[in-house]
């Protein structure tokens, strides 16, 4: 739970900050995300009919949807994010029946680009957090803000590098907790939200309502396609960690749970969910691969979602603390993408695919005003650097012809083990 918690709460915080939502709405998003993640984790681990892979998987809100969610939310608000997520989840539900064909659209060059773009798109968010944010009264880039962010970052690095077991796995959450205590001692935290928040509350389905903009559904559908491929890689790594053979039907059950779970999460006012790769690392680290143990993680997340006061505490975390932890978290996503790209065959064709797609994705990320003169439909679909990078990579992979590779004597002597790509994904996880 600790390994997943940082990622689960980060998504509603990023989206809420980008849309400038009031604190009480961000609290509702956080609790909905915890509740939805918990319930879908239990279903994924235990299985309900054809839904659920029945392996130790922790589900949580995914960063792959952040870019599309912000783009949709800026134009239509939170109801459109949830409505688009619900409608587009059909892509994943139906796609679970056609995984071999969909997987061909996303070779490792494309997957590596997508993972890298997710990290690159989120780093500016962490930088703004570290500087103190743009809220009224905040001093952007003040020495105090940067000092706290640096302190948290160094703490997380030390815990990752020198910690063992659960300390290393939960380094981000522990680092945030230490930074939080530092800010409490400095008198930087206002506990008004915590005092006003109810201790216990039942879930509120359709709390924000729903709208279904066509452009938003298209943008979310693309994000779902990307997530399907990421989740497949995570399942393959999980199979290696648990000595389980990943057959087509097994993968289909897991992908189907992602789709059905995201639809359920949308009804519960939560962003979409997907399988968390970092928890595969926890399975390898601890040697505990019981799906029943991991299902208890789902129970704990579910219970956490029933206590709004916990979400209120999360909202009081100062932005520099989030920035120090977020910089580490998002940079690790970049690292995972780079590791995937490093195992891609070094050809001129693959080089063009990676360079152009990352360049186009960064163009939208760094200069979002680039699309300001285009129709609203185009801005919503292509407003996310992750979406642009993924679409350009898939298009180039389909259009550019593959040329046969001439092997040298050295190439013939050195054989690449068939597990090379699987190993890279496992290391990334």
Automatic annotation (TrEMBL):
<feature type="transmembrane region" description="Helical">
    <location>
        <begin position="26"/>
        <end position="43"/>
    </location>
</feature>
<keyword id="KW-0812">Transmembrane</keyword>
<feature type="transmembrane region" description="Helical">
    <location>
        <begin position="293"/>
        <end position="315"/>
    </location>
</feature>
<feature type="transmembrane region" description="Helical">
    <location>
        <begin position="321"/>
        <end position="340"/>
    </location>
</feature>
<feature type="compositionally biased region" description="Acidic residues">
    <location>
        <begin position="407"/>
        <end position="416"/>
    </location>
</feature>
<feature type="transmembrane region" description="Helical">
    <location>
        <begin position="382"/>
        <end position="400"/>
    </location>
</feature>
<feature type="transmembrane region" description="Helical">
    <location>
        <begin position="55"/>
        <end position="74"/>
    </location>
</feature>
<keyword id="KW-0813">Transport</keyword>
<feature type="transmembrane region" description="Helical">
    <location>
        <begin position="208"/>
        <end position="226"/>
    </location>
</feature>
<feature type="transmembrane region" description="Helical">
    <location>
        <begin position="167"/>
        <end position="188"/>
    </location>
</feature>
<dbReference type="InterPro" id="IPR017588">
    <property type="entry name" value="UacT-like"/>
</dbReference>
<comment type="similarity">
    <text>Belongs to the nucleobase:cation symporter-2 (NCS2) (TC 2.A.40) family.</text>
</comment>
<feature type="transmembrane region" description="Helical">
    <location>
        <begin position="105"/>
        <end position="127"/>
    </location>
</feature>
<keyword id="KW-1133">Transmembrane helix</keyword>
<dbReference type="Pfam" id="PF00860">
    <property type="entry name" value="Xan_ur_permease"/>
</dbReference>
<dbReference type="InterPro" id="IPR006043">
    <property type="entry name" value="NCS2"/>
</dbReference>
<protein>
    <submittedName>
        <fullName>NCS2 family nucleobase:cation symporter-2</fullName>
    </submittedName>
</protein>
<keyword id="KW-0472">Membrane</keyword>
<feature type="region of interest" description="Disordered">
    <location>
        <begin position="407"/>
        <end position="429"/>
    </location>
</feature>
<feature type="transmembrane region" description="Helical">
    <location>
        <begin position="139"/>
        <end position="160"/>
    </location>
</feature>
<dbReference type="InterPro" id="IPR006042">
    <property type="entry name" value="Xan_ur_permease"/>
</dbReference>
<keyword id="KW-1003">Cell membrane</keyword>
<feature type="transmembrane region" description="Helical">
    <location>
        <begin position="80"/>
        <end position="98"/>
    </location>
</feature>
<feature type="transmembrane region" description="Helical">
    <location>
        <begin position="352"/>
        <end position="370"/>
    </location>
</feature>
